[in-house]
Amino acid sequence: MAEAPVIVIKKKKGGHHGGHHGGAWKVAYADFVTAMMCFFMVMWLLGADEETKASIAHYFNHPNTPYHDGRDPQSIEARPLGESPGSGESILKGLDGKTPDELVEKPMRPVEQQRVSFKELGELAQEVMEDQLYGLDVNLETLRFSVPEELLFNPGETSLKAGAEQYLARLGRIIASYKGYVRIEGHTDDKPETSSKMGNQFEFSLTRAVQVMKFLVQKDFIQEERILPVGSGARRPYTTGTTSEGRRKNRRIEFTLTSERPL
Question: How far apart are CA 105 and CA 138, in angstroms?
Answer without folding.
Answer: 23
